[in-house]
Design goal:
- This protein has about 250 residues and is an alpha/beta fold.
- The chain has helices at about 20-30, 45-55, 70-85, 110-130, 155-175, 205-210, 220-230; strands spanning about 10-15, 35-40, 60-65, 90-95, 140, 180-190, 190, 215, 240-245.
- The chain has one domain (about 10-245): Rossmann fold.
- The chain is built from seven helices and nine strands; from the N terminus they run E-H-E-H-E-H-E-H-E-H-E-E-H-E-H-E.
- It has a seven-stranded parallel sheet with strand order 3-2-1-4-5-6-9, sandwiched between helices. The chain has a two-stranded parallel sheet with strand order 7-8.
- It is globular and about 45 Å long.
């Protein structure tokens, strides 16, 4: 089947791209023709596996260690990616901390780290990318279904952080639209990853909350990201695209 995203010659950065949704997104963008940089913190070997997978598809790939919790590294990763690839057309803000625990058990350290990674890191990466992007640039952030429906306790901090990047995305769409740069957010539902496996202890309850009665795959989320990165989404900006199997329906 002929690709419809048509990202030939595009240059992309996927933060947190060593595993799960990030790794699937890097591979999908490469399938559509993009060169890709992925960042990682601890998963060096996994990131190098993604690089090899991208190179097998005939595209250029680089793995960079960058901690989104560090302000300098969050912004610096964008500049390093652009230097490695010779420019930047697509930023996928995927790196995140998924802390789930009772409100009263959250420490100030927990709050600071989640906000640093999930909000400040996303803002700084978007700010740095916007300074480099030409018309046609794409900023895509991975949000969460908990911003649309929070079914139980324990998600307060995480939901707040992901709601913040939804607001950021809408503001970016207004700020950058005149330059022909779009900004959108993808809200995954329960997705089968090593952090939340489809055969894990919480899976039956989470799957039952979806309309389709199952977990999604990282590849299904990556398909939505690839669409937003491609030319057919040129008139889509400031949008929230749910890939959640009807979790929030």
């Amino acid at each position: 089947m002929t690709s419809r995203a048509n990202l030939s010659g595009k240059k992309a950065l996927v933060t947190g791209g060593s595993r799960g949704i990030g790794a699937a997104t890097a591979r999908r963008l490469a399938r559509e023709g993009a060169d890709v940089v992925v960042t990682y913190v601890h998963g060096k070997e996994a990131a190098e596996d993604v690089v090899r997978a991208v190179e097998t598809l005939g595209r250029r790939a680089v793995a960079l260690r960058a901690d989104a919790a560090d302000a300098m590294e969050a912004a610096g990763a964008v500049d390093r990616a652009a230097e490695a690839l010779g420019g930047l057309d697509i930023l996928v803000n995927n790196a995140a901390v998924g802390l789930m625990q009772p409100l009263e058990d959250m420490s100030l350290t927990d709050v600071d780290r989640v906000i640093a990674v999930n909000v400040r890191g996303v803002f700084l990466a978007a700010q740095a990318a916007a300074a480099l992007m030409a018309p046609g640039g794409r900023i895509i952030t991975v949000g969460s279904c908990v911003t649309r429906r929070t079914p139980g306790p324990g998600a307060t901090l995480y939901a707040m952080s992901k709601s913040a990047v939804t607001g950021l995305t809408k503001a970016l769409a207004r700020e950058l639209g005149g330059r022909g740069i779009t900004a959108n957010v993808v809200h995954p539902g329960p997705i089968d990853t090593d952090m939340n496996p489809a055969d894990g202890p919480f899976a039956p309850d989470q799957a039952a909350m979806t309309s389709l009665g199952r977990y999604g795959t990282a590849e299904e989320v990556a398909t939505a990201v690839a669409y937003l990165a491609g030319p057919e989404a040129v008139y889509v900006t400031g949008a929230e695209l749910s890939v959640d199997g009807g979790y929030a329906a």
